Amino acid sequence: MKQLSTLLVAIVVLLASGCEQKSNEYNLVPYPQQLKAQQGSFTINESTIVSYQGSENSRFVAQAFADFIEPASGLQLQVEATEKGGLVKNTVCFIEDASLEGVEGSYQLVVTKDGILVKSNNPVGLFYGFQTIRQLMPAEVESKELVKNTDWTVPAVEITDAPNFSYRGLHLDVGRHFFPMDFIKKYIDLLALHKMNVFHWHLTEDQGWRLEIKKYPKLAEIAAFRDETLVGHLGVGERQYDGKRYGGYYTQEEAREIVQYAADRFITVIPEIELPGHAQAALAAYPELGCTGGPYEVANEWGVFKEVYCAGNEEVFTFLEDVLVEVMDIFPSKYIHIGGDECPKARWEECPKCKKRMQAEGCKDAHELQSYFIHRIEKFLNANGRDIIGWDEILEGGLAPNATVMSWRGIKGGEEAAKQGHNVIMTPNTHFYLDYYQNNPQKEPLAIGGYLTLSKVYSYNPMAGDLTAEEAKHIIGVQGNVWTEYMPESDYVEYMTYPRACAIAEVGWLDFSKRDYEAFARRLQIHFKRFDVMGVNYFDKVLMPSPSVDKVEFIDQAKLELFDNAIGAKLYYTSDGSIPTDKSTLYQSAITVKEECTIKAVAIDSRGRASDVLEVQAQKLSFIEGIAEPGENKGLACKLATGKFEKCSEVDEANGKRLVVTDVMIPSEAPHDNFGLSLEGVLSIEQDGLYQFALGSDDGSQLYLNDRLVIDNDGFHGMIYKKASLALKKGTYPVKVLFFEGGGGEGLRLEMMNVDGDKMQLSEYLSH
């Protein structure tokens, strides 16, 4: 019996091992549309031939494959043309066949024990087939030095593949911090590995102009350097600076080198030249282009600045057109990104030249003046055979006729543009802003704020919006954005970008219905071995569990759910204040809480690595009674204050315009940046019980009830929700919401759940 038991255990272990091997055999990122596993493998050896058929681009891909594997393998594979259209023994063959159907980037890959065949109707598809072979090979193939005692095998497989979106991009901000050429090339290499086809190069900012423009040499001499840089977070504590001159720029020859390097990997470089805002560095070099004439200095901290190009000055358009002529000469991309975001209008509203321009062009306000500005630049670029991309603020005042919109403030701008018939690239800060924290903010290196896990990135469905099938055709792709205010080193850029950029690559490649996060996360664990060989400083910590609520607040009892962000990990928890270990209670279902306590939880993965400890306070609530009389009018009294605020208390003390709003919302009269709101009234509660509140804002907000602060969401940050539960007696409660927008997006929302857990129509219960 003991022998039989031992045999059964052995069989189970063998089967488990076999299953694991099979699941890890095709660890491709992004995963193909169709993959059929086959038996056996093909080994590349010194006799293997690399052949090609088709255009010169086919030969280029074949040679690129041979050149790629040589350093690690030591194999100097012969590359030659072939007349044969199928699989050839001991050959890796790349065939460009115009008769095949498929979009750009589509390909077919067949690997048998005898050889490899890649077929496509375009060279991009052949190149993506090469990248798939690369990922199927041992990770050691990425080494730049000879690796001995390794078989260069490729598992047998049949793949039919094509990208879901035509635009699959990754952005890099080099304006806030400047990065060397070698890193830019490595960044592009990683895009190629993951079949991404656009590098969005953010070249100009308030904090630095990074591209040489020969007609305007002061952009390199002055605008490319700042006197010092902010130390620490913009929104925390008294501001301090390092006192060190900082900067740099790319010569036109270096920029051309990057363009060619990317083109060799079938990647388009789209340059971004910011206008009409984010222009303070340029104004420091050429102050006559601003509304006041200066003097200006290159910004030494982050944020949004009121110094912008003067829309009423013809010299500004001459300057920008001259700059764009040189930019177009360097970058052959169809698109030129012109920014268009976060342009304060205060200077324009004061400037005599801008007022004159508004009158001459029939602009009813400064937003229409920005639209005039964007239209004029678009017309110039269109006349030169180029199209513009702009951030979703270019919708304000009327969208330029041929513009493509990059939707970053959530998805609303993208949906609006698609409904107007404009192409859209979805890059919402809610899912694709890689400068947000990816784990416990208290333990991670400094970041701008927000919280964005790998799983949330992967969960995004670009086609989930309220669009018809025809409108949805205008969603042409996705992009991840890497803003570098708090990323001074290239290693940190990698740490924040990967593996979340892998998730974006798969979002852009695979239809939502085909995606599987757990399978993706398992593939990543093998993919990380490739990163190790490549020297990528990726994030590979065990993610802390997420709670269903930040704080458990209850009357009699409540339930707390924990969510595992780390695939393959187990969650353990305690409620006695001790640090949980793998000997603590295993989390299997929602925790019932009946007494006040501190619940601590930890994720422990299969390698025994533990996450940071999550702490959730459980508090038993006492009922609160309302202290106000019902209001006479529906809605809330609103004070709208303009200015640059850093905390909610400043808004409370400021003077402002008096309005009425129907709900907790930003009134239409508010500017698009640098303002604050104080919303006051009363909230009617019709039934005793536990009510849940969620206050979301970008930037700071606070909720007061019964003159008591109940949600504190203050400070500079992206769109973040904070929650609270309150035991409320039937009655009327004074309510106040404070909010400020400090640049970088705007948003304010208060949600309320009733005693049954259903969302309430808040406006029906508000009065003043």
Automatic annotation (TrEMBL):
GO-annotated cellular components: membrane
Listed under GO biological process in this entry are:
carbohydrate metabolic process; glycosaminoglycan metabolic process
Tell me which residues this entry annotates as catalytic: E342
Query: What InterPro entries would the database entry show?
Result: Beta_hexosaminidase_sua/sub, GH, GH29D-like_dom, Glyco_hydro_20_cat, Hex-like_dom2, HEX_bac_N, PA14/GLEYA, PA14_dom
What keyword terms does UniProt attach to this protein?
Glycosidase, Hydrolase
The record lists the catalysed reaction(s) as:
Hydrolysis of terminal non-reducing N-acetyl-D-hexosamine residues in N-acetyl-beta-D-hexosaminides
Instruction: Return one GO MF term.
Output: beta-N-acetylhexosaminidase activity
- Which Enzyme Commission number(s) are listed? 3.2.1.52
Q: CDD domains given for it?
A: GH20_chitobiase-like (cd06563)
Pfam families, A to Z: CHB_HEX_C_1 (PF13290), Glyco_hydro_20 (PF00728), Glyco_hydro_20b (PF02838), PA14 (PF07691)
The UniProt record lists the PA14 domain at 630-766
The family line of this record is: Belongs to the glycosyl hydrolase 20 family.
Name of the protein in question: beta-N-acetylhexosaminidase
